[in-house]
Every structure is written in structure tokens, then in C-alpha cells.
């Protein structure tokens, strides 16, 4: 195999940006898989350049001029930037590969713009791409391993890539680690719902932690497990064996049902500084929040009590909530969230809207069959833009509720209460910066703009009511402005996509609706 010049781009930002939040935190949102792919490529003797794009890097200058192969890892929100970059690097003779969540969610669309689109990616699959490394146009080759890789290269082998992103983080430097892949729960809306839970080798985890302690004075680690602590004792035993008390600060996402007080105290003793439990709904998902049959205000009381207990031991708690679920109706979900914040003012609330990300989750097929999915351009498909027509709300009413609850959540009164309730300096200021920067100004302004257009712009409203699939000029203009120089590289037609591609592909490929896979030799 000839030696290749390989570029790997980890898209943390969806467009050029210089916001305070991204400047401070952007480099900490790196993904692990681009580093893993970079390591596997280097092992094969290729020259590799990995760039984490936080919105400020000049990608043309950062990658070698003669790059042969460009891997891009992208969330759906950054998909249009990835399409533009693919077009740009193809024009310079490169072969392009897409991986990451967008490739798993919207492979049919991505195939139009990349030579390869990767689902589950293991070493054998990467070797296959390196050996083939050829144009597949106009339709890219879609490849997937059967499952997540059983082992990943550890921190020591990935260190040069980790270190280069740490150098970009000016204040807080966080290293991502994994102790497991996927999750044993099966929440309908989640990309991990149908993927088997897979704990990773605990000895590798210990090696990673030891290595970090040898390299950094006081490391901060974010566990990227979708649900940390499913095998709680196994993980904590490993940490206690190699990390002296207070030697590393940890951040983890975990369900409330895993967080009993004795466990939270053990987490505290072992340096856990931030936990991100999912609450999702006040009317459903009692099992994962450990509230059983309780709903409504009963669930609010129980969850607030639980979160306040966690906050007595852990300085930063972000609670994750979803609005627009089919089980929600009327003002209650929003008012109950406000009551929760009154009762647990130290929690930082993170809101998502129910969205169907292509074929990420099994229930998306039902939304597509019911013709409820809108072709909202990928650029807006983050957790703040719902692309499913709400079951129990008109769009303007839904946005009124969203604006109201968001204003309440990041009001000066609650920001001050949150500041006072958090015991440590970094969590306090993170809450303020985040509350003011991305949540208060960014989200409220966006929600207000959408609400106003729904009222005054007839074509915009017709799009949301599914009377037309023409992308409203507001969206197109915003993409053009956001992408800046990359707009000129966006392939024609890329702003639109088929919101029912998953359904179509499921009907065409097989009766059991599985993603078509290409075997790896
Ligand atoms: S508990 Fe969290 S990670 Fe697990 S399936 Fe539900 S939403 Fe996904």
C-alpha cells in the first residue's frame, strides 16, 4: 500500500465562530473516534494530520496541500460544513470519508457528498478504506462494522492528538475517556437504544488513568460513556486502585437511577465534580429517573430532592430535559420544569427538543410513517430545533412555552441563585458564562426569531405546517451567513434532504429494517 497523506477533521463547531463559550470550552468537545482513526492510520505507516475545528482554525492551511484522504467526523448540525469541506478537498484531488453521528443518522444523504460513509467503525474497516482509497462518485460507498470495536487504542497511543487539543483550551482542559460503549436502557429517542451495551477492558482504563497522572499535574477527565456507572463498582474499584483521592477531577453523564446517595458519596470521594443526569420528561421514563409511577408534581418533588442530594456532594449538576414528547400536552411540562428549578436552583438545566435524527432511533420510523418529520436543514438540527410536528401543540404555542421556560431558567434571579448554590469556583463561573452566552442570548433570540416568522411569514409557516417542502429563505440566508467562505463550496441542493430516507431505505432493503452493511474481509 502506498504511503498516504491523511487529514482528519473533528468538527466541533458547525461554522466559523468566535463566541466566548467556544473559545473557552470548544477544544474540550473533541470526540475520541477521530483520535482512534488517526492512530490506526499512523500504525499503517501513513502521515496523519488531525485538526479539531472549533470555528477558528484555517483548515486549508492546517491540512497538507497534497492531502490524499480526508476523514471528517461530524454531528448532524455540522453536516453542511462537512459537505462543503468534502467538496473543497475533492476539488484538490482528495478522497473523502464521513464518520461520526451524521454518517450513522443520514447515510443516504451523506453518500451524495462523500466517497465513503462509515457506520460502526473498527480497525478492519479503516484498513479497508485505506487499501481501497478511491473515488466512489456520484454515490459514496456505505460501510459499517457489525458493532462498536471491542478495544480502542489507549491514551498513551493517542497522546499526541489529545495533547494538541488540550493546548487549544485556554483555561479548562478536559481529556475524554470511555469505560463503556452504548447503554443497557432503550429510550425510544436515543441513538444508543438499539446498540448492545459493551463495557471496555478495565485494565485499559487503569492504564489510561495512570498515564494521565504521569503527564498532567491535575487532570480533568470527561467520561464519554452515554451512561457512566452501569457497572458502578467495577469502574469505581478501578479508579480507587490507581487514582489518589482528589488526583483527577471527573465529569460523567449518568441516569438518576444509578445515583443513590452512597454511590454519589463514593463519586465525591473520588473527585467527581460534574454529573449530567437525564430527566427527560415529567410524565414518562420513571424507571431511568428512579421515580417509578410518579408523574407530574410528584415526580418534580422526588427528582428535585434527588438532585439536591447530589448537589450536596457534587458541585456541578446539569439536568437534561426534553420538550415536545408525544406524552406532553398543554403548559404543564414547562411549568413543572420551572417548579423543579425553584426547588433545585443549583442544577443547570439543559433543554432539548424531541427530534428525529434520520435513522438514529427506532421510533423515527414511526414518525416518518406518520409523515411528521420536517426537512429542517441539518445546520439547525441541534437539540434546540425540533423537526417533528408536535402531537399536542400548535407551533406558535410550542414556541411561546419554550421562550417562557428558557427566559425563566436563565433569568438574572435564577443565575444568581445557581451561582450561590454551587460551592466551587469553576462550576459557578461555568454556569454564568454558559447561562449568559449560549443559553440565554443564543437560544432565546433563536426561539423568538422562529416564533415571529411563524406569525408573520406565510411561506415559513407553510413549511412548518408541511404544506410545502421549499426551504424558507430565512434558513437559507442564515446558513449562507454562518458558513461564510464555506458557503461557496456547499454542493448544489445540499441545503435540502429527504426527511423520510430511513423509511424508504428500510422498505427497499429488508423487511426487518436493518441498516445495510458491507462485510469487512
Ligand atoms: S439512558 Fe440515556 S444513553 Fe441510555 S438509552 Fe436512555 S437516553 Fe440513551
UniProtKB/TrEMBL annotation:
Q: Per its UniProt record, what InterPro entries does this chain match? A: BchE-like (IPR051198), rSAM (IPR007197), rSAM_sf (IPR058240)
UniProt keyword annotation of Metal-binding present: yes
One annotated GO molecular function is: iron-sulfur cluster binding
The cofactors required by this protein are: [4Fe-4S] cluster
List keywords of the entry alphabetically.
Answer: Iron, Iron-sulfur, Metal-binding, S-adenosyl-L-methionine
Presence of the UniProt keyword Iron-sulfur in the record: yes
**Its domain of life?**
Bacteria
**What name does this protein carry?**
Radical SAM protein
Amino acid at each position: 500500500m502506498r504511503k498516504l497523506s491523511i487529514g482528519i477533521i473533528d468538527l466541533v463547531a458547525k461554522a466559523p465562530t468566535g463566541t466566548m463559550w467556544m473559545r473557552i470550552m470548544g477544544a474540550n468537545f473533541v470526540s475520541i473516534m477521530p483520535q482512534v482513526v488517526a492512530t490506526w492510520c499512523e500504525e499503517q505507516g501513513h502521515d496523519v494530520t488531525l485538526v479539531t475545528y472549533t470555528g477558528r482554525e484555517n483548515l486549508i492551511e492546517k491540512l497538507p496541500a497534497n492531502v490524499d484522504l480526508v476523514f471528517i467526523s461530524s454531528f448532524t448540525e455540522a453536516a453542511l460544513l462537512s459537505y462543503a469541506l468534502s467538496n473543497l478537498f475533492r476539488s484538490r484531488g482528495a478522497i473523502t470519508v464521513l464518520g461520526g453521528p451524521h454518517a450513522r443518522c443520514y447515510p443516504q444523504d451523506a453518500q451524495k457528498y462523500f466517497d465513503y460513509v462509515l457506520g460502526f467503525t473498527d480497525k478492519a474497516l479503516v484498513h479497508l478504506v485505506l487499501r481501497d482509497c478511491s473515488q466512489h462518485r456520484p454515490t459514496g460507498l456505505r460501510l459499517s462494522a457489525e458493532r462498536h470495536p471491542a478495544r480502542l487504542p489507549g491514551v498513551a497511543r493517542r497522546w499526541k492528538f489529545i495533547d494538541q487539543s488540550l493546548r487549544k483550551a485556554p483555561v479548562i482542559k478536559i481529556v475524554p475517556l470511555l469505560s463503556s460503549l452504548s447503554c443497557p436502557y432503550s429510550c425510544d429517542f436515543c441513538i444508543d437504544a438499539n446498540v448492545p451495551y459493551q463495557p471496555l477492558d478495565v485494565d485499559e482504563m487503569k492504564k489510561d488513568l495512570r498515564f494521565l497522572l504521569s503527564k498532567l499535574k491535575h487532570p480533568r477527565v470527561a467520561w464519554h460513556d452515554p451512561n457512566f456507572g452501569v457497572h458502578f463498582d467495577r469502574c469505581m474499584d478501578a479508579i480507587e486502585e490507581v487514582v489518589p483521592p482528589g488526583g483527577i477531577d471527573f465529569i460523567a453523564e449518568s441516569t438518576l437511577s444509578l445515583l443513590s446517595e452512597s454511590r454519589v458519596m463514593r463519586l465525591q470521594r473520588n473527585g467527581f465534580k460534574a454529573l449530567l443526569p437525564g430527566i427527560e420528561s415529567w410524565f414518562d421514563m420513571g424507571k431511568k429517573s428512579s421515580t417509578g409511577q410518579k408523574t407530574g408534581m410528584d415526580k418534580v418533588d422526588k427528582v428535585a430532592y434527588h438532585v439536591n442530594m447530589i448537589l450536596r456532594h457534587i458541585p456541578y449538576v446539569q439536568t437534561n430535559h426534553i420538550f415536545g414528547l408525544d406524552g406532553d400536552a398543554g403548559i404543564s411540562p414547562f411549568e413543572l420544569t420551572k417548579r423543579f428549578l425553584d426547588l433545585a436552583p443549583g442544577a443547570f438545566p439543559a433543554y432539548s427538543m424531541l427530534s428525529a435524527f434520520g435513522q438514529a432511533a427506532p421510533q423515527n420510523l414511526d414518525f416518518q410513517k406518520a409523515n411528521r418529520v420536517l426537512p429542517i436543514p441539518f445546520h439547525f438540527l441541534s437539540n434546540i430545533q425540533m423537526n417533528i410536528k408536535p402531537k399536542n401543540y400548535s407551533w406558535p404555542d410550542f414556541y411561546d412555552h419554550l421562550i417562557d421556560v428558557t427566559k425563566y431558567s436563565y433569568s438574572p434571579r435564577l443565575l444568581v441563585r445557581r451561582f450561590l448554590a454551587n460551592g466551587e469556583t469553576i462550576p459557578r463561573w461555568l454556569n454564568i458564562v454558559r447561562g449568559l452566552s449560549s443559553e440565554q442570548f443564543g437560544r432565546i433570540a433563536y426561539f423568538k426569531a422562529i416564533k415571529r416568522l411563524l406569525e408573520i411569514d406565510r411561506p415559513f409557516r407553510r413549511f412548518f405546517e408541511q404544506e410545502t417542502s421549499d426551504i424558507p429563505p430565512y434558513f437559507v440566508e442564515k446558513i449562507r451567513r454562518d458558513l461564510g467562505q464555506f458557503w461557496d463550496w456547499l454542493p448544489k441542493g445540499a441545503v435540502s434532504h429527504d426527511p423520510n430516507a430511513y423509511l424508504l431505505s428500510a422498505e427497499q432493503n429488508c423487511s426487518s429494517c436493518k441498516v445495510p452493511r458491507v462485510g469487512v474481509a
